[in-house]
Each structure stands twice: as structure tokens, then as C-alpha cells.
Amino acid sequence: MERDIKNSVLLTEEGYERLSEKVEQLQGKIEKNREDMSRTADNGDLSENAGYMAAKESYQNHRKSLNELKDVLNEATVISAEEVGSERVDFGTVVTVRDLGQDKEFTYKIVGEHEARLTEGEISIKSPVAKGLLDHEPGDEVEVETPKGVTRYKVLEVAAPEGSE
Fold first, then answer.
1. Which of 76, 83, 99, 128 could form a disulfide with 11 if both were Cys (CB 3.0 to 4.6 A apart)?
2. Architecture, CATH, for domain 9-79
């Protein structure tokens, strides 16, 4: 799968759904902020109304986040599990590697930068580790330059994500 990762916003289907749910949550928070601003506006001078100011600030922050998230979703190219191969490390693949320095195995799913969750084993395609592993296949040894220095990995397995054929 040839992708222009430098200039594209790529998302997996799961990532797109998760971010879409976050849009709905933000819209609910914005509505609550509006209600709070309306309710607290009745408490006198707005310039000295702490409740109103807090609701307004929260509203502005949520609006900013919502607009940024909508931009991401509008610009995104969504890659379905069926489009992901399993021969080489690429966007959407699940790769198991051995850190040769620590002699530990790690499994990562390569995902879009806006959906990455390291705690879930999902790393951004724009991260140093993902960039270093791209286009490699099982058996390859790879040196990856990270902020902590050079790490050597051996690619053990590359798999398509669940849901692919």
C-alpha cells in the first residue's frame, strides 16, 4: 500500500469511529457550557462573574478542540482493514519486534498520528519507531533513531489487523 504519510491524515476505521465519538462528546460538553453560561449570566456583572468566566473558558477550549477534531476527520483518508497487507510493515499492520538491546518483545499496531495510544500498543505512523520499521518484513534487523538513542529491533512478525481477510 503506497501512502504519502508526510502530507496525509491517515486513520484506521476504528480510529475514525473513536474520533467521531469524541466529536459527539465535545458537542455535548459545549451544550452544557452554553447552559452554564446562560445560567451564570444572571448573577450580575459578567466581568466579575467567576462562574460565567469559567464556563466561557471551558466553552472556548471545547470549541477549539471540536474544530481541530472536525478538521482531522474532514481531511482524513480512512484505511479499512481489508486494504492492509501482511507482508511488510505498513500503515494498519500489527508488527511484533524484539528489542535486541533489552531482549524484550513488543507488539505495535501502526496507526494515524491522531489516533495513537501507546498504552493500547498503537503507535503513530509518524513516530520514530514506526518510521524505522516501515517497509521491513519478518527477519529484518532495523536500527531506529529515537530521542533516547539508537535502538535495534528484529522484526518477528507482521500481520494484518483483525477484520481483514
1. 76
2. Orthogonal Bundle (1.10)
- According to DSSP, residue 47 is labeled G
Residue 96 sits at the vertex; the CA angle it makes with 92 and 98, to the nearest 5 degrees, is: 145
CATH 1.10.3880.10 fits 85-159, yes or no: no
Nearest to 162 by CA among 81, 80, 79, 78: 81
Helix (H) or strand (E) holding 62: helix 50-75
Asked whether 110 and 95 are in contact (CB, 8 A), the reply is yes
